[in-house]
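Suppose you are handed only these lines of text.
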Amino acid sequence: MRGASEVIIALDTPSLEEALGVIDVLGDEARFYKVGLELYTRVGPRAVAEVIARKKRVFLDLKLHDIPNTVARAARAISELGVDLLTVHAAGGAKMIEAAREGLDSGTGLLAVTVLTSMAAEDLGATWGRQIESIPEEVVRLAELARVSGADGVVSAASDAAQVRAGVGDEFLIVVPGIRPAGADHQDQKRVATPAHAVRAGADYLVIGRAVTQAPDPAGALRAMVAEMDLSL
Ligand code: C5P
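From them, the structure of the protein bound to cytidine-5'-monophosphate can be written out as follows.
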């Protein structure tokens, strides 16, 4: 039986000060934060340490994709930082995913990224050298590859989440980004979903960035989105 869905706030800021400002302003409203490539590249492991020092959980979204030995060693170093969730690309293959899982300790969940939502069927076809009939089919295929290789879950657009859930079962985590409140500006996101839609589609975690962090009242915006999640139950 899956528990209630939770929110992860994306810290897409260029500096540690701005990231910590987001955490301060949200206070007890948020318990889980995503550190991505920009912040990690600019600040390094200290970005993770400072979030953990504030008693928050960390999803380190580095989307690793390299040979198994390199990924295993990086995964071990990441686990030692005290990270709760880490991403790798499912396209790195079964051996790479297995190596990542072996490198991580049991306290760090391993998520696979299947198909980047920036890619259309033509882009994927050109990359893989074969006709792609359906992106959701590729997403579910890669999610299953990740699952049997030891991943604990996937990152998925809300539009694919229900198919992934049906394909991989209830024990697999589904993390859904691209969340906007009902009726909001989509910004540069193409495949967006409301909190209620994402929860209904089977999301365990909703990654929310600008809709909260750039709101005039971030804590109020987050409370409103959490209320929207509850509407779906
Ligand atoms: O658009 P928003 O500011 O809510 O984005 C939140 C986070 O989700 C960002 O860090 C972005 O990289 C990530 N993400 C996404 N859409 C995807 C995959 C990841 O918005 N399809």
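What can we learn from it? The first helix runs from residue 16 to 26. Residues 10, 12, 36, 117, 157, 177-178, 189, 207-211 surround cytidine-5'-monophosphate (CB under 6 Å).
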